[in-house]
């Protein structure tokens, strides 16, 4: 069975909600799911993953949420490992009322690519009405992960 890792960083629970929705949709497609808060994923674990969906909200002035800060520090470090075996996609959550709309998700998406990971679906940046765009993105991404 194919394992899909669903990693999330959330401040208010919206990203966790989207991660749970992604997990349910992936299970229905036959994936084995492993779900983790971003801070629970160290770089050794990340570099061993083959498939991951990252769902991350943006907090404050463009920062990652509290449960993603340690992950971001490790990912953005100069000695972060190469991730050539990882296929990924990012769902970024934010609020267009802020200049730093979806900044945490954008930065994670960019850094994963810089480290050699392969994007299976372009990042989706979701405003406060995130349910429909995230659901459509997940359906598309799961199809890409299956191929």
Protein architecture, described:
With 147 residues, the protein is of the alpha/beta class. The chain is built from five helices and six strands, in the order E-H-E-H-E-H-E-H-E-E-H. Strands 1, 2, 3, 4, 5 and 6 form a six-stranded parallel β-sheet that branches. Helix 1 packs parallel to helix 5. The two termini are 14 Å apart. The mean pLDDT is 96.
Keywords summarizing the entry:
147 residues; alpha/beta; 5 helices
Q: What's a concise summary of this model?
A:
It is built from 5 helices and 6 strands.
Overall average pLDDT: 96
The radius of gyration over CA amounts to: 14 Å
Q: Give the helix level as a range of percent.
A: 25-40%
- Our count of helices gives 5
- How far the N terminus sits from the C terminus, by CA atoms, comes to 14 Å
The multimeric state of the shown protein is single chain
């Amino acid at each position: 069975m194919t394992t899909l890792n669903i990693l999330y960083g959330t401040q208010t629970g919206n990203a966790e909600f989207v991660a749970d929705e992604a997990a349910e949709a992936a299970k229905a497609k036959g994936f084995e799911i492993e779900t983790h808060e971003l801070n629970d994923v160290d770089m050794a674990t990340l570099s061993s993953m083959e498939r991951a969906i990252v769902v991350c909200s943006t907090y404050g002035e463009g920062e990652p949420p509290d449960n993603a800060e340690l992950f971001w520090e490790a990912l953005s470090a100069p000695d972060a490992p190469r991730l050539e075996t990882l296929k990924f996609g990012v769902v970024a959550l934010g609020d267009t009322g802020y200049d730093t709309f979806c900044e945490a998700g954008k930065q994670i998406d960019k850094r994963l690519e810089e480290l050699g990971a392969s994007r299976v679906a372009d990042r989706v940046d979701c405003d406060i009405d995130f349910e429909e765009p995230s659901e459509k993105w997940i359906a598309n991404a799961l199809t890409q992960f299956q191929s």
